[in-house]
Amino acid sequence: MAAGVNPAAAVTIALPLGLLGTMVWVAHMTLDVTFVHMADKAAEEGNLEKICFWHVVPPQILMFLLCVVPATAATYFGSTAVKGIIDSLTGRPLTVLTVIGGLLPALGIAMNLRAIGRPGTLLFFLVGFILVVYLKLPVIAVAVLAGVIGYFYTMLSNQTPQAAAAGDSGGAAPIEDDEEDF
Length: 182
Hints:
By secondary structure, the protein is mostly helical. 78% of the residues lie in helices and 0% in strands. It has helices at 7-45, 48-88, 92-116, 122-133, 139-157, 161-166.
């Protein structure tokens, strides 16, 4: 907006840039796999320092190059440079970016539908749907109730069989031997 672009064009540009950010993140994670293999090789050698190095330093340098450098350049050159880039995108490129931006909500809905279709999730979705549509409860109230139910569901499903049989509330089991585990 500082470049003098109308709000509709700003949203049109922001959505594809969000997609671009996602693609940069996926590229970062894909390239990081090479560092994991190098860390695995160092683990086979038993070299802890190399493992730590491959785990921390190169991924951070890569992320710096993929994110910080472009963001710093855009900030340094300011709104006139951004306006120049936007002006160069007018016509077909801006139309393509608009179409891509329009697809993002459909992608989000598809991801939600895929998550809802997982075993154990569909029942919760149907209960929430019935509470909102047929019982006319506010969505916020249903969301808070779902959060509480989700918390207890997670706590109960993560209990060990011994803790569940003993009626333990998920806390740490007391250590009964004299030796400490490290």
